[in-house]
Every structure is written in structure tokens, then in C-alpha cells.
Amino acid sequence: MATVNRVLVVDDDASVRESVEMFLRDRGLDVVTAETGGQGLSACLESNPPVVILDIRLPDLSGLDVLKGIMAGRPSTKVIMVTAYHDMVTTIEAMRNGAYDYIHKPLDADELDRAVSKALRISKASCSIPTLLGDDPEEIFRNRIVGGTPEMRSIFKSIGLLSCNRATVLIEGETGTGKELIAHMIHEFSSWKDEPFVTVDCTTLVESLLETELFGHRKGAFTGAVQSKRGRLELAGSGTVFLDEVGDLSPSLQAKFLRFLEYREFTRVGGSSVRRFDARIIAATNRNLQDMVQRGLFRQDLYFRLRVAAIQVPPLRERRADIPDLMRFFLAKINRELDARVWRAEKRITELLQSYSWPGNVRELKNVLTTAVLESRGEVLLSDAVEAALKGSTAQLFSTPELRSMDDVEREHIRVALQQSGGNLSAAARALGISRPTLRKRLKKYQLRQ
């Protein structure tokens, strides 16, 4: 069993070894020393210190080899590598092979003190804090949507009811609240779960290309249509079409969507045969559509067509009681995604997370926890790592975006139009609201390929 205040110092330089030993003993730590790699590895395996300060260059073994031996025999040990050489490759290799930190000689007392104190703190927390994830972390993923508040329980009921029918659903909620995940759950619990789930991002629809994007086109329907193409609606079959950010549709696109929803039929561009649309429509928006209807920005008839059934997703700040369960879920997910092993969290973290306003909602919570896991570098999530991640998240969210020149904006806009039109100049020009000659001039100006 490890002695909680023990530090092993492995360095062949006697003066460095002695000065580090004195420095650490003055801080009340129990210090063990070794002057070769072999001695250091043996001392580590025998005395099981929570922290090792290891020189990278030793007379008998490479510090990297000693590190690998320690990680194989004592994987929970925090190894702080020390070197007099600023070697990028060695630094990368040390961190890849499990080093906790990497500092340079001549040793800075404050830097060494911070590294050792943090490593000991993690080691002590590993022994005293119970695991968050239990014996079977995979069991956590059984529920893909996490929440026990009344609002979330109501959403679970709605998913169950709506999965039994084909009613059109409108999901409303702020960005990052999980609207698309709810749409997926409705689809996956339905009898049509084996049919496609097709997403249409309404923020990217170009008005002149709406028909070919949604309905498809017949070969030869326009210049550049070298083969027939099925649109998104046809690709959905009897599954689900998810209209993401439907509140961003322009007035003319709203009218086209309304006509389609009324008859649930469409014809490919350039075709003549009428095709039946059998999929379910689920729409989502981060806007208040009812307010947009009152201000004349969204068609009332389309609003009622979409809102046959409605789900309102609460922002995270209104369901703070779910944060501990969400943290547990995301830590298990982050461990799997990053091959990390964070099983515990300092007690203060829950207070930090529940006192934050979460403008980015659940999506922001996952990002903050991911950043904090990377910074914690161990099996314990540290409160100061979470605090730093929260500050960074807030600074990024409310920072003033960098302004771009009008030429940059126009160049990117033309590039996207060309991409979405499949390189068809006439279609791209119509989408941009300019003539073909004007478009050609812009292509030459911005050196864009036709």
C-alpha cells in the first residue's frame, strides 16, 4: 500500500538529488532516493510511492524505459519527468507513455512544488473519494437522455407516446439542449426504426436549390444533371425527416414547405411522375415560433402544420438537479471517447457546475468536462480544472468575433453556392441573385474554379 506523502526521487546527479530531497522534506514529505534507473524501478515497485520524480537521462536505463516499467507495475503512480534538454520528441513520448508532468532543469522551486502537490492531491483523492461510475460504467449508457426532473420525465413520456404514431412533431428549445437526440429517440423507439433517419439543416438550404435538394431531379433536368438523383425526402422512405432549425426558413421556403406538407406528394425536378411521401416529419427550432408568427416572420398555417405534437426542452439552468447525473454520464462517455480513466470527482465540482448559468446548455457541459478531464490527467476530476474550463468556456462564448472583410465573406458565399449547385453556374447565379456574367467576373476576381 502506498504511503500517501512519499516521493521517490531518481537522479544520477547527487547535487540535484540531495537538493530536491531537502526541498521536499521541508514540506513534510517522506522522500526515497535512487541514483540509477534499475534502483529507481525496484524502489518504486517495493515502496509504492504515489509520486516519482524521474530524470530522463540515467547511467543504466533510459528514463522512458523506467517510466514504462513503473506504468506496467504501478499504473496509478504519478511520474514527473525531469530533464536538462528541451527535446520535443522525448517530451511527447513521455506524455504518451503515462508521465503525469514534464519539467526542465534547472528546477524552478514553485513549478516543482505545484507539480508534486497536485500529483499528491490526486493520489489522496483516489483513495478517499468513491467512484462515480460504479462497477459497470457501460450500464450508464442504457439511458441516452439523462434527467430525473419533472420536465425531463414529461419528455420521456412524450417520446413513448409519439413513438406509437406518425404525428408531426415540433421540438422547441435553446441551442445545445438535445433536440436532435430527442428526435432520434422518437424514431428509434418507433415501429419504423429500421427505416432511414434523414436530417435537413434548414439554415443551409439555398432557395433556388430547394427542389433538387429535397425532391431530387431527373437526368438531364438541367445543365450538369448527368444522372438522376433522389432527394432527401425520397431517401427517408417510411422513416423520419428531421427539419433542423426550421425557424430559419425564408418566407418563400415556408410557402413551399406548407404546400408539400398539405399534399405529402412531390415530383422530381424535370420529372413527371408524382411520388408519395410516407415518412414522419419532426421539426426543431431554437427560436420562439409563436412570437415569430405574431411578428409576421413565420407563417401561422405552417406553424400549426408542424405543431401537431409539441415538445418543449428546458435549458440546463432550469434543470440543475440533473447536473450530477449528466456529469456521471458524460464522464463515462469521455472516458470511452478519449481512452481516459476518470472515475472520481472532487466534491466541490458539483457546486461549481450547479452555480453556472450554462448559456450553451448540455452541449457546453460536455465540452467543459472534456477540457477538465484532459487537464486533470488522472483518475480524479479536479475542481480547479473544472473552474478553469468554465472560465475558458465563458470567455469564448462572449468574446467578440473577429470581423472578416466583405471580399472574404463574398468569396465564401460564392464557394458554398457553387458547391451546393454541383458546379452549375446558372443554378449558382440564381441562388446568389446575380447574372451568369457577373458570377464569372467574381470567379475570376476570387480565383475560384468553375
What does this structure look like?
By secondary structure, this protein is α/β, with parallel strands linked by helices. It has four domains: 6-128, 3-Layer(aba) Sandwich (Rossmann fold); 150-313, P-loop containing nucleotide triphosphate hydrolases (Rossmann fold, 3-Layer(aba) Sandwich), CATH 3.40.50; 319-392, Helicase, Ruva Protein, domain 3 (Orthogonal Bundle), CATH 1.10.8.60; 406-445, Arc Repressor Mutant, subunit A. Helix content is 47%, strand content 14%. The protein is built from 19 helices and 16 strands. It has helices spanning 14-25, 37-47, 63-73, 88-96, 109-128, 150-162, 179-188, 210-215, 232-235, 251-263, 289-294, 300-306, 323-338, 348-354, 361-376, 383-398, 406-420, 425-432, 436-445; strands at residues 6-10, 30-34, 51-55, 78-83, 101-104, 169-172, 197-201, 216-217, 229-230, 240-244, 265-267, 274-276, 280-285, 309-312, 344-345, 380-381. The strands form five sheets. It has a five-stranded parallel beta sheet with strand order 2-1-3-4-5, sandwiched between helices.
